[in-house]
Amino acid sequence: MSKLFPTQEIGSLKKPADMLKKVKDPNVSDEEKTKIRNDAAILNIKTLEDIGLDIVYDGEVRRVEMYEEPVRYVDGFEFAGRVRSWDNKYYNKARVVGPVAFKQNFHAEEFNFVKENSNRELKVPITGAYTLADWSYDEHYKSKDELVLALAKNVVRPLVKDLVDLGAKIIQIDEPAATTHPAEMDIFRESINESVKGIDAKFVVHACFSGNDYKALAPQMPEIKAQQYTLEFANRDTWNEGLDDDSRKGFQVLKLFKEHGFEGEIGIGVSDVHVNEIESPELIRDRILYAAKALGDPTKIYVNPDCGLRTRTREVSFDKIKSIVKGAELARKAAE
Amino acid sequence: MISSYTFGIYPRSEELIEATRKNTENLASLFQSETDGYISAQKNANLGFVSDPLLKWDDIYRPFSNLESVNLSSLNRIYEMNTFYRILSFDGPDFINGGNNVQSNLDSSLPKNKTVAIPEPFTFAERHTSKAFKTKEEFTINLAKMLRAEIDSLVESGFEIIQLLAPSIAYNKEVDFGVVSDALKVMTDGLKAKTILHTYFGDVSAKIESLLELPVSGLGFDITTTPASSIEKHNFSDKILTVGITNSFNTAIEKPQECINQVDEINAKTKPKESYVSNNFDLEYIPKEFAMDKISVLGEIARGAKDV
User: Any chain A CB within 8 A of the CB of B287?
Assistant: First the structure.
């Protein structure tokens, strides 16, 4: 993108409460439910466009959540039941009971709809092979590596290829599990490379922060066939404005990426998705400017929240995105 | 035949999950009936010792949030699992007076042959924070004092085996076994019950010599992360050995005869003072129907294994 510091969303937004109520209502017809979902997607797309994001999608409004949605449409999986995330929060976890295989492009309808209803650049989020494997019970393959590669080659690659055939230009591969197992980064790298093999598109990898400050990821980044990483920085940064190292603690690791020879783009997380407080545009400006200097090339910096905003209210989420857009504008002016 | 037990938090049923989310009127009775069901399942499987399924516990540390000057803090990942616990912030020294936070959160209908699991102090200190102590060592020792009060209360009420859950000893590359030992001494000195230290979430092959020196009655191993071949290199004639044989991280149900052969082989080579089988870690990482099957299989393995 020719514009400096383009802004983008990571993927998920909280679903509108009235939409959830209606789509769960057995008295509402399937036709009406489709219309309700379409309306909710348009609401998200238009709101993100009106706020001023450069790259948009539909807030994953049609998806159950990032794991259960794809698993529903992949051969070889059976849901086992719910397992605790924390306290009274649970997620539905599946067993791999046979060879995994792609059945159909489960994001095709969603992508076609977004494409028809937006004239901005689109970034399609999909769940990566490593995370699908890590969050499942494997009763079929001999090893985790084997399952990860089978998912990459037989599920994610056909999905990506089909999305690109439909016109997708940017695909974000979501891999929240990747950094939780520092010893398994080799297979993570292979899974991404196998997922995108032979496909012409821009690939973005989104990985959450998990304790070791991306130190295990950094050496792999130049070897992974992704043009951009969208990563979390804000959740461990200070809320002080400023361009000094102490104020920008959360962004120190960018220097490590550079040391390891990574020359691609970074989508920097400038807004913490775990708190309701809204970062000021000035704070976001300083985070962007610091990151641009640390990475050594401002044209490689994209700006986004740390992660999906689905755990925040819609009001808080949109306020955070507004501040991101304003912060990026301030950073552009400062960089001129 | 050898003895057996399970440890840690059990999974809630789909019905109970829904009830906890909606806080339904029948929530309390559901908790009780499901607890009763799990206790019956352990008895029916002829497990040597029966444990409370801890269904009301949000994580293994949560009962300690009731202590003086202890506050709930942020969520943190349970090692490399996709499950999180709440960090406790020990903001003053008053918690040491502790007492019976574990005991008061256990079901009163447990049979006489009962066991319970509590965190081991090094792991506890490593996973939580304190503003009250200057060093991690000081924090660890004071947690041990608090946990000793809990153990005394548990032993007083008839618990014969106390499991000490020590995943950080397995997971962390660097472990100060001096601190671990000092803290365990505080907890076990003169205690009239057996203590078994369970390691999981990491390979302890290189730490077994140090583990054997610790002042506990026995050691428990997760053989999905610490290979049986590593355990078999050591002599357990002075220690109880618990083989964590059923895997709580996979829904595949173990084949009893294969497990019996494996346990017999480990015991033949290690010559333990006493032998037990257990799960490798909390059953809550698999849904209830699979956990029930694994309890049954665990009993079968214990019945089939040769006495030591």
Answer: yes
